[in-house]
Amino acid sequence: MAMYTAEFFGTMILILLGDGVVANVSLKKSKAHDSGWIVVATAWGLAVAMAAYITGWVSGAHINPALTIAMATVGDISWALVPGYIISQILGAMVGGFLVYLSFRDHFAATDDANVKLGVFSTGPAIKNLKWNFITEVIGTAMLVVGILGINYGENGVGPLSALLAGFLVWSIGLSLGGPTGYAINPARDLGPRIAHAILPIPGKRDSDWSYAWVPVIGPIVGGVIGALLYNFFLNIWV
């Protein structure tokens, strides 16, 4: 239960700070309105680092079902823990979404664009092409998992800097690969807040775009497994 509650709490923190910056930048009458992509990408990276420092010593701070499944695929975590990790992550993401709504309640009311309101909670493509949106999420998540495994490989000796470097990794992915789909690279990050959007009494909201929702769920899972297998393939050559 300690590991599951840590994954819940860590993912809640991730979404509170991550979706929080999206609300801060995109909702009307916020003091950070229109401050841009650099702010969003930076805050997401910091959100990952903060969540990892707070809970990583308990559960490893996966805070991402794609990473949990990838780690199980290469034997770094027991498959028996995977369902509990994933449920905890999704529930934590939902609660994080609720907290963002409470923090920005008046700003949701002041914003007319229903797409912007949905975008606070979930990702969406800049150009909707499900096949290529899926591929973008696969590539981004593969890079995430390769990076996490590389950062934490013992020969690097990064020790307590690993959480900060994981944040830098997510920052880099956001700056470099985030534009096409909003870089979910994490099924819980998208699905949990999307459920929150569907439930919450947000004034003037639209539907939660469930026709797209499979892309930021399945794409990261596939990409995570590919990334883990790819890193282990090269690791077996190097060592």
Give the helix/strand layout.
Layout: H1 2-26, H2 37-59, H3 65-73, H4 82-103, H5 105-110, H6 114-121, H7 130-152, H8 162-177, H9 187-199, H10 215-238
Helix pairs in contact: 1-2, 1-4, 1-6, 2-8, 3-4, 3-10, 4-9, 7-8, 7-10, 9-10
Q: In terms of structural class, how would the helical and strand content be classed?
A: mainly alpha
Poorly predicted ranges: none
Main beta sheet: none
The level of helicity is over 70%
The termini sit apart by 36 Å
Please provide the ordered H/E string of secondary-structure elements: HHHHHHHHHH
Under the CATH scheme, which class?
Answer: Mainly Alpha
**Number of β-strand runs:** 0
In total, the number of domains comes to: 1
Specify Rg, calculated over alpha carbons. Answer: 17 Å
Categorize the overall geometry: globular
The number of distinct helices, counting runs of at least 4 residues, comes to: 10
Please identify the oligomeric state: single chain
CATH architecture type: Up-down Bundle
User: What is the CATH superfamily classification?
Assistant: Glycerol uptake facilitator protein
Describe the structure.
By secondary structure, the chain is mainly α. The protein has a single domain (1-238), classed as Glycerol uptake facilitator protein. Helix content is 71%, strand content 0%. The protein is built from ten helices and no strands. It starts with a helix and ends with a helix.
Task: List key phrases describing it.
Glycerol uptake facilitator protein, single chain, 239 residues, mainly alpha, globular
